Structure formats: structure tokens, C-alpha cells
Amino acid sequence: MGRIHYDFSGERVLVTGASRGIGFAVARAFAMAGADVAVLSSGSGIHAAAEAIAAECGRPCRACEADITDSASIKAALADLDRIDVLVNNAGLERITPLTDPDEAIEETFRRITDVNINGTFYVTRHAVLKMPEGSSVIVTASIWSRTAVSEFSAYVGSKHANLGFTRVMAKELGSRGIRVNAVCPGWVRTEAAMLSLANMSKRTGRREEDLLNEITGAQVLPGLMEPGDMAAAYLYLASDGARDITGQAIMVDRGEVMA
User: Known Gene3D superfamilies for this protein (predicted)?
Assistant: First the structure.
């Protein structure tokens, strides 16, 4: 089977939520393809992530520490970036928010999730597009749950549906500037957030995590749990010239779990 090789030499790429998981894997893949990469996260771990990528790829990787729910913080973090060719809006928060849970902390969790996943995505894009030339690309990490739903994840599912709406609006709004906007919708991937959700689902249902995971992967056409690195190719493709005619679309990467 043939292999596809991407060359992003000279391209400047910003990936949010890149301290671990999918974001880290995507940032690493762009760096390996020759891009000048900047990674952004609210935690200090983003510096270690940038150092790891730089060490492996043999090229600098800039770390930007900022809270994406704070517009001024994002503006300041991006001030030194004079150009952004690819923006990957990957930062997000996934937590359980059961409607019938009497704990008032659920409401604060709901607010935090929507703030990060919706407002944060808007703030980053709003400031980044000012630095994006014609031919640039914005990629939003949505979810298969942006096309379907699961109980007790109202904030996460609702925010990911909003991410698809945002993707479509921005595709229309930025198309005249030659900027494409698309979304990647990952299925179940072995990330810290996904495994925490699995543990919470197990706790609330009384079922073993192993049984739940087998049920989840059993719903896929292709079996097995994906790893963060399995996601990277979709982002590289959408940012490449090969996808120059694709905008406003949501690409499912879920081994056939949701066909829509």
C-alpha cells in the first residue's frame, strides 16, 4: 500500500490543547512534516510538550501558555506570531454533566465546558485569523458526538454540536478571504479525557470499564481503540493543497462508528 508524504516546510502552524493527547500528536505530525509549530495550552505542561516535539523533530517548537477562555490572554499569547497558515482548534474539555445530579457543582462544570469548547474556540479563531493569509486553513476538533448524542454529557455534546455550527459559519464568513474551515470528528481515542469519561460511565452504571469499552469498540465497523497518533493524518490532509476545495465539512475519523 502506498504512503502519503506531506511537506509543510515554511508553513506556520498553531495547535491549541497540545500538551497531550490528540493535540500533541497533531502538533508533532506537522513538525515532522517540516512546519514551524507553536503549541498553546493553559497549563505549564505545554512547555514540556514543545521541548519534546523540538527534540524529536530537530526544529524549534514555540510554547504559548494562555487561557483560551480569556480573550485578552489569547491576544497577548499570539502577539509575537506574525503569520499563521494553519490553525488547529483542538483545546477542549470533556466531563460528565448529568441533568438529574443534585450536586450544584454540575452547573459550574457545565459552564466551564461550554466556556472552553465554545467561547475559547471563538476567541482563538477571532485573534488568529487576523494573522492568516489567503490559502490558510482552520481545523476544529469536534467529535462523533457532534453528530449524535450520549446521555449525561449534555455540556460536551452540546458544545461539540456548536463547534460544527461554528465551523460552517466561519467557512462562509472567511471563504472570500481564501481561508478554509473544516472539522475533524474523532471517535473513541485513548486519551486522558476519554478514559476519564469511561471511568465515570463505569462508576455511574456499575458496569466494568472493560465491558463498556468492548461495547463501544464493538459498535465500530473497524475494531480496536484508536490512539492519538491515528488522528493526525486527517488534520494534515485538511491543511494540505489536496483539500484546497474542501471547506465547511466535518470529517469523521471513528472507524465507522457513526456514518453521517
Answer: NAD(P)-binding Rossmann-like Domain
- 124: which residues sit within 8 A by CB, 6+ positions away? 16, 40, 68, 74, 87, 89, 91
| pTM reported for the whole predicted model | 0.94
- Give the whole-angstrom CA distance, residue 26 versus residue 18: 8
Residue with cell 438529574: 100
Q: How far apart (Å, rounded) are the C-alpha atoms in residues 176 and 134?
A: 9
Active site residue 156: yes
Of these residues, 123, 156, 235, 237, which one is catalytic? 156
Q: Which fold has domain 12-187+227-252?
A: Rossmann fold (3.40.50)
Q: Which residues contact 156 (CB under 8 A, 6 or more apart)?
A: 93, 94, 95, 97, 113, 117, 143, 145
Asked if 189 and 226 count as a contact pair (C-beta separation under 8 A), the reply is: yes
* Each residue's pLDDT tens digit, 218-242: 999 999 999 999 999 999 999 999 9
